[in-house]
């Protein structure tokens, strides 16, 4: 199979590589979502040493800097209530945690969740967190420019490997909400 992005030598339908994905991601890929056919999700096997975006693009294609999205876990706090959510923005942007995220969650304060909370609550590896397979109760805040991309490279739940999905497939994930101004 040829990957729709980058210069990957090992690309396959993600449904054929479930053994390389953590359980929550594998379950979501196997089940599908929002009418997205499982075969439209591509897994590319990559070196975990090159997982960080800039280094990754050096090895797999510079166009990936503009076609990759990052998923981060945030915590919105209002009094003693804490709401965990995930935010997805293109890798060239940063998440507007103190503006768009805080307002959308109705929180007094919002911040990035700690590494322990992020990996403990998602069942994924830090540096590989993906919007695919997140807890269903979480809001998934998505920058509309991500959903507008034909293909987007995202984490696979592990530092080794990535998923390539249609942008519109991310907007169809459970809990997904398009948030203008999320990525700045």
UniProtKB/TrEMBL annotation:
<dbReference type="Pfam" id="PF04073">
    <property type="entry name" value="tRNA_edit"/>
</dbReference>
<dbReference type="InterPro" id="IPR036754">
    <property type="entry name" value="YbaK/aa-tRNA-synt-asso_dom_sf"/>
</dbReference>
<dbReference type="InterPro" id="IPR007214">
    <property type="entry name" value="YbaK/aa-tRNA-synth-assoc-dom"/>
</dbReference>
<protein>
    <submittedName>
        <fullName>YbaK/EbsC family protein</fullName>
    </submittedName>
</protein>
<feature type="domain" description="YbaK/aminoacyl-tRNA synthetase-associated">
    <location>
        <begin position="51"/>
        <end position="171"/>
    </location>
</feature>
């Amino acid at each position: 199979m040829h990957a729709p992005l980058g210069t990957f030598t090992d690309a396959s339908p993600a449904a054929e590589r479930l053994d390389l994905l953590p359980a929550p991601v594998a379950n979501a890929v196997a089940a599908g979502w929002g009418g997205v056919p499982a075969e439209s999700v591509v897994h590319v096997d990559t070196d975990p040493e090159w997982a960080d975006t800039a280094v990754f693009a050096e090895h797999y294609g510079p166009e990936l800097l503009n076609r990759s999205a990052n998923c981060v876990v945030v915590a919105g706090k209002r009094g003693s209530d804490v709401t965990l959510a995930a935010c997805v923005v293109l890798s060239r942007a940063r998440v507007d945690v103190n503006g768009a995220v805080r307002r959308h969650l109705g929180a007094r304060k919002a911040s990035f969740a700690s590494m322990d909370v992020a990996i403990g609550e998602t069942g994924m590896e830090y540096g590989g967190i993906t919007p695919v397979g997140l807890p269903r109760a979480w809001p998934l805040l998505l920058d509309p420019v991500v959903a507008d991309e034909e293909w987007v490279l995202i984490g696979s739940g592990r530092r080794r490997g990535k998923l390539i999905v249609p942008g519109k497939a991310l907007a169809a994930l459970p809990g997904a909400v398009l948030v203008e101004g999320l990525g700045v």
